[in-house]
Amino acid sequence: MKTIFWGGTGQAKVLREALGSRIELLAVVDCRALPSPFAGVPVLVGEDGLQRWLAARSGVEGLHAAVAIGGARGRDRLARMDQLASLGFSLLGAIHARAFLAADAHCGEACQVLAMAAVCSHVSLGRGVIVNTAASVDHDCEIADGAHIGPGAVLAGEVRIGECAFVGAGAIVLPGRQIGADAVVGAGAVVTRDVAPRSVVIGSPARLHSQA
Fold first, then answer.
1. Could you say which residues bind substrate here (predicted)?
2. Are 206 and 192 in contact (CB under 8 A)?
């Protein structure tokens, strides 16, 4: 599948490896003039660069796109997905060959489940969700659109993650807890109580650090 990525940093590298031989990567789009993360693959700068490239190709017919924007930028990821879909690209997700995805789990459009991650029974992943390297999402969790579960994070059973929330690397969320929309759980935090929307929690047990 002939494909472009939006995003040219670390998330692009792990996404490219996850997609493997399924794709032929034609270009990377980024808002900055970055060195290309992939030999022989050009970096197009911003929307203008993408439009010029498309004009030279006579359009998007037969092209796919994946959005490689991670961290606490879930709303940016969803916005780029919408933009690329509106241009006529077919959006791609990725389930790494060495990830575990339960047969009864649900993955929304363009989810990314990366190497060694586990998505267990009756889990629901919304649109544009990232479950990063070696993260574990246990039974009956619900993860809303645009959320990102960082490398090595652990969600115990029946956890609810709000839209565009970010759970940092190595964090642990105990059973039945709720993380509000746009909240950030710091790396290594242990969440023992619910986290309010747009708040940042850190530490073990996790305590409020700031709130928008």
1. 70
2. yes
Decide if 86 contacts 100 (C-beta within 8 A): no
C-alpha 165/C-alpha 45 separation (Å) is: 27
Whether 89 contacts 2, CB under 8 Å = no
Is 122 annotated to bind a ligand? Reply is no
Q: Residue 166: is its pLDDT beyond 90? A: yes
Let me know if 40 is exposed, middle or buried by CB neighbors in 10 A (0-12, 13-18, 19+): exposed
The per-residue pLDDT of the chain, averaged, comes to 96
What's the half-sphere exposure (Cβ side, CA atoms, 13 Å) at 85? 12
The reply, when asked if residue 64 is annotated as ligand binding, is no
Is 21 exposed, middle or buried, given 0-12, 13-18 or 19+ CB atoms closer than 10 A? exposed
pLDDT tens by residue, 198-211? 999 999 999 999 88
Domains and CATH numbers, the chain: 2-92 (3.40.50.20), 95-211 (2.160.10.10)
Question: Which candidate in 96, 106, 122, 139 is catalytic?
Answer: 139
Angle, CA 92 vertex, CA 122 and CA 170 arms, to 5°: 55
**Percentage, residues of the chain above pLDDT 70:** 100
